[in-house]
Amino acid sequence: MELYLNFLLWIFGTLCSLGPSQVSPKQLSGLYTGPYFSRYTAGNVTIRAGDVAHLPCRVHQVRNYTVSWIRNRDSAILAIDGDTIVNDRRITIIKTERRGDWVLSVTNVTSRDDGSYECQVSMQKKMSQFVFLKVLLPTVSIDGPPEVFTKSGSRVQLLCHVANRRQSVPIIWKKDGVEVKDSSDVKMEIFDRGGNTTARLTMTNVNQSRFGVYICQTAGLPTVNMTLHVIDAKEQGLRTNAADKRL
User: Fold this and answer.
1) Reduced to 3 states, what is the DSSP secondary structure of residue 210?
2) Distance (Å, rounded) from C-alpha 210 to C-alpha 19?
3) How far is residue 72 CA from its own chain's centroid?
4) pLDDT at 37
5) Cα separation of 50 and 52, whole Å?
6) pLDDT tens, per residue, the chain with 247 residues
7) What are the C-alpha distances in Å from 42 to residues 51, 99, 123, 166?
8) DSSP H or E run through 244
9) What are phi and psi of 184, to 5 degrees?
10) Which DSSP letter does residue 219 get?
11) Distance (Å, rounded) from C-alpha 143 to C-alpha 160?
12) Of 102, 166, 89, 94, which is closest to residue 135 (Cα–Cα)?
């Protein structure tokens, strides 16, 4: 198979080096000269909301054929041969004929842009290549169950994650609606990794005053919460005795 492909490439290179008058119909017989898609074009593009998406389409030997981009969600024709058709200023075509690139560019992507797009070559028999755009929306979440039980005097860590933001944003923890501040036994830490931010709240030597609803809050996203229950030694002993009696 590899030898056969090398042979075809050698024939193609030889013909390209000849002038038009030197190439006879007999020499072109059996050699495909029509458009074809590059095998190295990505089929999936994943990007965060608000960023710029570049959907690749590389077509070789286009010649006089037309290359179009179509959005499958509503069958809208977005662009034809580098000219934007749809009334959306965010959409443009980055065209590089030398390399055969017809890249669909979408700025400030939103969840509505999520879906399948078709790069189409208009021939007698239509040729198509599909690219799926996945738009990642910002999310906020708290590790663990919605209710946490801990012993009095223990150490507790609460983790809140904000993912897929274009840039780092402030995150605060609140207890019963009041912002939690650093103190001798409370520490708030922020860890940022390329649009993903974690707020870690560490409390040591917890007591009944730490019981309550803890809310994680950041701008532009819904709040999430969990409840911390603190069981003191006396209550723990009563529960243990009750369990022993049942046995």
Assistant:
1) helix
2) 85
3) 19
4) 87
5) 7
6) 444 444 444 444 444 444 433 433 343 445 777 888 887 777 899 999 999 999 999 998 888 889 999 999 999 999 998 899 999 999 999 988 788 899 999 999 999 999 999 999 988 788 899 999 999 999 999 999 999 999 999 999 999 999 998 877 889 999 999 999 999 999 999 998 877 999 999 999 999 999 999 999 999 899 999 999 999 866 555 454 444 455 5
7) 18, 16, 23, 23
8) helix 233-246
9) -65, -30
10) T
11) 6
12) 166
Distance CA 247, CA 166 (A): 56
Amino acid at 200: R
- Residue 222 and residue 15: Cα distance in Å, rounded? 63
Tally of residues, the chain: 247
Residue whose tokens read 């580098």? 82
CA 117/CA 58 separation, integer angstroms: 14
The residue whose two tokens read 């998406």 is 53
23, amino acid identity: V
Scan for tokens 């021939």, then name that residue: 123
Q: Are 31 and 15 within 8 A, CB to CB?
A: yes
Q: Could you give the angle at the alpha carbon of 109 between the alpha carbons of 104 and 110, nearest 5°?
A: 135
Q: Which amino acid is at 172?
A: I
What is the number of alpha carbons within 13 Å of residue 165 lying toward its C-beta?
Answer: 20
